[in-house]
TrEMBL record:
InterPro entries: AB_hydrolase_1 (IPR000073), AB_hydrolase_4_sf (IPR050960), AB_hydrolase_fold (IPR029058), ABHD4 (IPR012020)
Keywords, alphabetical: Hydrolase
Every AB hydrolase-1 domain range: 116-349
Originating species: Rickenella mellea
Gene3D superfamilies: alpha/beta hydrolase
Keyword Repressor appears in the UniProt entry: no
Active-site annotation: 202 (charge relay system), 344 (charge relay system), 370 (charge relay system)
GO annotation terms (biological process): medium-chain fatty acid biosynthetic process; medium-chain fatty acid catabolic process
Superkingdom assignment: Eukaryota
Designated name of the protein: AB-hydrolase YheT
């Protein structure tokens, strides 16, 4: 069951969707933190995340989903939410490389090894520089004495994104979760006593939901937060393609971003040979002027967007059907907060029934666009992201107040210098190098940020 946004309520208070039968969570007692008590998901939210139940008023000059999304893409965020990362490059067993950006950097201040860690997954062609990522991480990693949470943050930059080298004939995708899985193995090995909570944006939200469903009760993340998740990729793609305006603006914008990302790695792509999964159809793709996202996914993502099997897929439609996350919600076993905007021009349908899973809640805001949620700040010329406050509250609550009801994750083992999990011989990760500092306020020039 999905939602047609034309029927959405006119209230500015986000609408809560949840399962008919409540789930009960174990939390530390507010009277005595050494004791635990049981509470429903709704009561947990009302107590710890009050911002979710307050109105969101879009800035008057950003009063539509298109304007909110455009500001996310074209707004200047270089002077706000400044952040610096320590980058670690990780080689994966299949030859691929991902980049983990940790903050705060070691040179800036020392953080205890057992403090909670926020694991962030960016959008389609983004990275740790994205303004929506920094907007969440900056207040979360700010020291408690300065009004923050004092947490550690780490952004998982997908293969080829945000300056990460492309070292195998495989990309990432909305459905492939092994790169996240291997990043979490590495993080858990480095910080075995730190609670891990996950936040995903757009494509990264889809990866997060699928990971949580696949891992079930043995998830290394004890909670998740999915922002702007595309959910039903088939229906959302059909809608983008059926509307001229959305096809020209959004589908071609996202498709163009993926083409530019690939073009930045032409030297690396040449080393894989013309007949590899990743390169075989690149000449055909590059010959298309302004390709849509569907055209890129048909020639690249559906073929090389993950390991084989299940890749390659016969068509982009087959890939979308497999990679969708709405049908995965029944298997999620940790508390999951999802927030979508009803006027999101990219995401048309959201799972109102939340998989009939009491651990999953979905909040829909009337406005906000795609990863926008901009509201007026105290200064009339400036805006701030409404979504920062409820996500901040959720991260604090699930990292500090929640008592996870999970089984022990698979044991981590080391084999010939590779870190992996018992029973998963196809996975393995090792640190290549500490790649130094990354200035989070400056991203990939030429790419449309926020998409």
């Amino acid at each position: 069951m999905g939602l047609s946004f034309s029927s959405f309520t006119t209230s500015n208070i986000p609408t809560l969707y949840q399962a008919p039968s409540p789930a009960y969570l174990s939390v530390h007692s507010q009277d005595d933190p050494n004791n635990t008590e049981r509470t429903t998901m709704t009561a947990f939210l009302e107590t710890h995340c009050p911002s979710l139940f307050k109105p969101f008023h879009p800035a008057w000059w950003l009063n539509s989903g298109h304007l909110q999304t455009a500001y996310c893409v074209f707004g200047d965020f270089t002077k706000v939410d400044k952040i610096v990362y320590d980058r670690k490059l990780l080689r994966l067993l299949d030859g691929g490389t991902i980049g983990l950006d940790f903050t705060p950097p070691v040179s800036e201040r020392t953080v205890k090894d057992d403090v909670p860690i926020i694991v962030v997954l960016h959008g389609l062609t983004g990275g740790s520089y994205e303004s929506y990522v920094r907007g969440i991480l900056v207040p979360a990693v700010t020291p408690k004495d300065d009004g923050g949470l004092g947490f550690r943050g780490v952004v998982v930059n997908f293969r080829g994104c945000a300056g990460v080298p492309l070292t195998s004939a495989q990309l990432y995708s909305a459905g492939h979760t092994d790169d996240l899985r291997q990043a979490l193995i590495y993080i858990s090995k480095a910080y075995p006593n730190a609670p891990l909570v996950g936040v995903g944006f757009s494509l990264g939200a889809n990866v997060l939901v699928r990971y949580l469903s696949e891992e079930g009760n043995r998830s290394r993340l004890q909670s998740g937060c999915a922002l702007g998740c595309p959910w039903n990729l088939v229906n959302n793609s059909d809608r983008l393609q059926s509307n001229w305006f959305r096809r020209q603006l959004y589908s071609k914008g996202m498709g163009g971003n993926l083409v530019k990302l690939l073009q930045r790695h032409l030297e690396e792509l040449a080393t894989f040979g013309p007949d590899s999964r990743l390169t075989a159809k690149l000449p055909e793709l590059f010959a298309i002027k302004s390709p849509t996202l569907l055209q890129v996914d048909a020639r690249v993502t559906s073929i090389a967007g993950g390991s084989s099997p299940p890749f390659p897929f016969p068509t982009a439609h087959d890939y979308y059907k497999w990679a969708s996350s709405h049908h995965c919600l029944p298997d999620v076993q940790v508390p999951l907060l999802a927030i979508n905007a009803a006027d999101d021009p990219i995401v048309h349908e959201v799972p109102l029934e939340v998989g009939r899973n009491g651990r999953v809640v979905l909040f829909l805001t009337k406005g906000g666009g795609h990863l926008g949620w901009f509201e007026s700040s105290d200064h009339w010329r400036e805006v701030q992201r409404w979504v920062t406050r409820p996500v901040y509250e959720w991260l604090r609550a699930t990292a500090e107040s929640l008592v996870p009801d999970l089984e022990r994750p698979r044991d981590i083992v080391e084999r010939d210098g590779w870190i992996s999990e018992v029973g998963r011989d196809n996975l393995g990760v090792k640190e290549l190098a500490n790649a130094g500092h990354v200035d989070g306020a400056h991203g990939d020039s030429g790419l449309l940020a926020g998409l």
